[in-house]
Amino acid sequence: MRILSITIFMLFFISCDQTTSFKKEDFDTNIIPQPKMIDKGSGVLLLSGQSKLYSPQSDVYPLLDLFISEINKITNIELGTTDTNNHEADILFQIDASMIGEEYSIEIGNTINVIGGNYKALAKAKSTLLQLLGKEEGKLMFPIVTIKDNPNASYRGLLVDLARQWHEIHTIKKLIDLAAYYKINYLQLHFTDYQSYTLPSTKYKNLSTPNRHYTFEQLKELEAYSQLRGITIIPEIDIPGHSSQFVRKYPEIFAIKDTVTNPWIINMGKEDAYEALDFIIGEISSIFEASPYFHIGGDEAIFDKVSEDPFVQNYIKTHQIDNDVHELYRHFLVRMNGIVKKHHKQMCVWEGFRPNGKIKIPKDIIVFEFETNRYLPNELIKDGYTVVNTSWKPLYVVNEKKWEPKTIYAWNMWKWDNWYDKAPSYNPIQMEKSPLVIGAQMCSWEQSEKVEIPSLRKRLPVYMERVWNTDKKIPFEEVMNHIDILDDRLSKLINDNEQDSLLHGHNFTKDTQ
Fold it and tell me: What InterPro entries does the record point to (predicted)?
């Protein structure tokens, strides 16, 4: 493959004069997150509307078509593709399997040569090119530059809460475009909670909240849309707590005896409940096939009256579980882990279980640590769990409970912080670097779709700069200068220019609650 890439580059170095030209002009390279290596040359490459894109791999052509459409949205210039290596192409995308993961390189000289370790790496390179893109006198303009890049964190996530605040499909697509623009690679969709159940089901149709749920066709559409852009959707069904929709719609399957006192938790003692959850998880897993993960929530379960339920009492005896509802909860997590594995996914949970317990929680789950009230991140790491940092401060974006970009930039991937003075991380927990912290996730909770884009568009790239590059590369002021320029281009890409008024000088604290 190395020989092939050199040969192709030499062929395209003598690309058609009619479609390319050079100009001695300074051209700023505004890229967020910053590449690991960038070597700036002199001048810019100009491409005409007759320029074409080529790849030796047919699987890459959907990405080329996407790139063409995005260039058109930003510049009103429409390029084309060629399916033969015949000197017509000025932009070449190719996969080189010897590169690792999302590693990619871009060489802009007489042509633009893009190489990535896989499709997703090429998608990240495409985003870099969109950020470099300029326009002059009806031509595309790119700086003469060589870039070599790869992320430090393998998990770079964004969560969107669809259960508390319904989002139309077109809004979710905008969020995917925003995420792709700044090289997010996982989008977790919080589909279920107290307020609504937004998923479809062939067997448990009553679960779906009227006028607030997606069809199978819409979910498949989102899966294809995200995959094309190099983003993987992680579905979340929040259980055993946050589950009042299950309890109200199918009490004969999911409810405990005293639903008046506790209508929020699934009955962990009913075999029918496990059977139904197995079916539902399988149904949703088959839609989001590309995801290696399935998130079951697992947090903030309210155990009032659970131990008094006769099904629970019988289940505890049958499975020889200590007469302790917390042990039943740990058993529930273990059993759900088996169900998720059965459907070829790895289970993810919010921080919810505690360090102490007779039933051991498997180490092959991934813990999204947010509150630091139950199992501290340093303890999780010491005990061998894989962790995603979802520190409440500064990664939560919740209407006015959010933080300014400067505060986000002061955070790092091994730091947990909380605004709540009774949380252990109110005095921030700063850990040593550990490979068990595989990344981080910005979590947008309870926000209407009207404020979603404005809230995230300048916070997300700052957070991404800190997880793509876990060591700071440039000062904060320079980061924001880049983002301000890139944001104008983003507005054209997503056809949305609304901004958040709580961006600078605003940090949520307990006193501002």
Answer: Beta_hexosaminidase_sua/sub, GH, Glyco_hydro_20_cat, Hex-like_dom2, HEX_bac_N
Q: Own/partner pairs for 310-314, CB < 8 Å, 24+ apart?
A: 310/257, 311/256, 311/257, 311/267, 311/269, 311/270, 312/256, 312/267, 312/268, 312/269, 313/269, 314/269
High-pLDDT (> 70) share of the chain, %:
96
Residue 182 CA to residue 465 CA, distance in Å, equals 9
DSSP secondary structure letters along 448-470: -HHHHHHHHTTTHHHHHHHHHSS
Residues 368-380: b if buried by 16+ CB within 10 A, e if exposed: bbbbbbbbbbbeb
pLDDT over 70 (residue 8): no
Q: E strands along 96-214, which residues?
A: 104-108, 112-116, 134-136, 139-149, 155-161, 186-190
Element (H, E) at 225: helix 216-228
pLDDT tens column, 471-484: 988 999 999 999 99
Q: How far apart are CA 115 and CA 121, in angstroms?
A: 8
**89 contacts: CB under 8 Å, gap ≥ 6:** 12, 15, 51, 52, 53, 54, 82, 111
Confidence band for 16, pLDDT divided at 50, 70 and 90: very low
